[in-house]
Structure to design on (461 residues):
């Protein structure tokens, strides 16, 4: 496994080679409590600085990211295996967002005034206090930043626990933010699930979490004891519906790219493809031709299109799902077996004739698998199959009839839907996990407001 948590250390292994990158001590229970106490002590002065000054300080994050861009990208590749070019793009993308996001937070949290005859009410947005930021490994730069920036700008202080799979990337992010703010406004703790659980149970006011549905449920259970505020961004099982009259080349490109990108380890990856029966053979051929090009290899190597999976457990989970699908009647079109040699690689895999009752149709795979099923071509069946999941993160539909595409999109129970394109809202829209893909959301005006509570102050006029 890439990373293990014994009682007191995490071993950070390179998933491309299995070599030990670092062994880091996990925060003890006392250290977690101390981290929270320090963040709590620092919070009133941080809040008192006011929004404008806080945002001025936080804007320095962009400079810190730019200065350490190459180091961050290299760390991400070494720690979780993603392509170095993708890691660079992730750093650049989030660097360029810092300024606009801070402007957006200021706009979202600005005091609003409401008037009636004889009364004036101000609606002010108050920080919760201390936020626990707990993040995953698959976008090791972006996921922490989408919580840290808005949470801090709103006047909260933060205790940040990065994923145990990417502790060094997390530490570099923490250092960049810490260089911009007063002491203890951001406190870092290292550790795996046990440390995360202790942090949630500690004297914090809110949890900003990105990770799996299973962990999200545990956090909600623990946080319920003191009704701590939550934003949970969780996993997905996104469908792609392809009608026979759609641009099949574009739909196949969407299916392959978004099933295999980041070795399939993307929350809003395409995990289920439903193709209208009459186009199934042609579509499968197009998918297989495109997927053949997705060579796996070390993230630093030119020509690699996918790195390894993050850990031995993650690969074992993918192997189990694919093997079970095949023994339950799915047809292996390509891939499907682990290569020899070091590293937790798994090839681009295409399955066809995947049935509705199979495990791979319902559990998040988080691996490089294009899973093809068919439907009878009716809107009713397309919608029923797409919604046949407790998840609701993203969904995609391709149709030559744009009105039909829009009708199906309207009925898909997902926070983000793409019509004849891969999902993804314009800047300013929140990142929404509907149903069991989330609770609360991040980004956009509505997301930023979740790091505050609204308070109305009224007076006679
Ligand atoms: P995970 O749930 O295993 O871990 C996420 C974080 O939670 C880690 O820091 C981990 O140490 C911590 N943790 C584990 N158990 C905990 C507990 N009991 N209490 C508190 N913290 C705990 O998820 P992962 O494997 O790191 O990430 C992959 C998952 O994240 C996938 O399900 C993916 O879909 C999801 N994800 C969602 C989004 C989104 O925006 N919706 C984005 C990226 C990843």
């Amino acid at each position: 496994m890439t990373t293990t948590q014994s009682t007191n250390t995490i071993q950070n292994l390179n998933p491309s080679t299995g070599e030990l990158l670092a062994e880091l001590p996990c925060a003890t229970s006392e250290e977690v409590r101390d981290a929270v106490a320090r963040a709590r002590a620092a919070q009133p002065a941080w809040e008192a600085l006011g929004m404008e000054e806080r945002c001025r300080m936080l804007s320095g994050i962009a400079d810190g990211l730019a200065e350490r861009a190459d180091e961050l990208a290299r760390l991400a590749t070494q720690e979780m295996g993603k392509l170095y070019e993708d890691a660079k793009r992730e750093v650049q993308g989030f660097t360029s967002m810092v300024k606009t996001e801070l402007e957006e937070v200021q706009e979202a949290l600005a005091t609003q005034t409401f008037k009636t005859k004889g009364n004036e009410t101000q609606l002010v947005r108050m920080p919760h206090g201390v936020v626990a930021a707990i993040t995953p490994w698959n976008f090791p730069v972006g996921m922490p930043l989408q919580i840290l920036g808005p949470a801090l700008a709103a006047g909260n202080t933060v205790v940040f626990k990065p994923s145990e799979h990417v502790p060094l990337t997390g530490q570099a992010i923490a250092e960049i933010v810490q260089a911009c703010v007063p002491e203890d406004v951001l406190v870092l703790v290292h550790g795996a699930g046990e440390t995360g659980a202790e942090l949630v149970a500690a004297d914090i006011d809110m949890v900003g979490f990105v990770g799996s549905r299973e962990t999200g449920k545990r956090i909600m259970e623990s946080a319920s004891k003191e009704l701590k505020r939550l934003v949970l961004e969780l996993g997905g099982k996104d469908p792609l519906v392809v009608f026979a009259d759609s641009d099949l080349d574009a739909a196949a490109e969407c299916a392959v790219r978004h099933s295999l990108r980041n070795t399939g380890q993307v929350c809003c990856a395409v995990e289920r493809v439903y193709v209208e029966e009459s186009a199934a053979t042609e579509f499968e051929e197009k998918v297989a031709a495109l997927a053949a090009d997705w060579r796996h290899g070390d993230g630093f190597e030119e020509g690699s299109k996918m790195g390894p999976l993050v850990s031995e457990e993650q690969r074992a989970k993918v192997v189990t799902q694919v093997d079970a699908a095949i023994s339950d009647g799915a047809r292996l079109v390509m891939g499907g077996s682990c290569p020899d040699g070091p590293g937790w690689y798994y090839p681009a895999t295409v399955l066809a004739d995947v049935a509705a009752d199979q495990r791979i149709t319902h559990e998040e795979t988080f691996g490089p698998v294009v899973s093809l099923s068919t439907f009878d071509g009716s809107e009713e069946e397309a919608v029923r199959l797409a919604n046949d999941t407790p998840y609701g993160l993203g969904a995609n539909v391709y149709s030559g009839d744009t009105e039909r595409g829009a009708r199906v999109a309207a009925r898909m129970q997902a926070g983000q839907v793409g019509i004849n394109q891969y999902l993804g809202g314009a800047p300013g829209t929140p990142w929404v996990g509907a149903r069991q893909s989330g609770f609360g959301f991040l980004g956009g005006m509505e997301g930023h407001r979740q790091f505050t509570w609204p308070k109305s102050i009224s007076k006679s006029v």
Residues 134-138, 143, 161, 163-164, 192-193, 196-197, 200, 210-212, 215, 218-219, 233-236, 267, 364, 366, 393, 431, 433, 438 surround nicotinamide-adenine-dinucleotide (CB under 6 Å). The chain has two domains: 9-234+434-460, 238-427. The two ends are 66 Å apart (CA to CA). The longest strand covers residues 119-127.
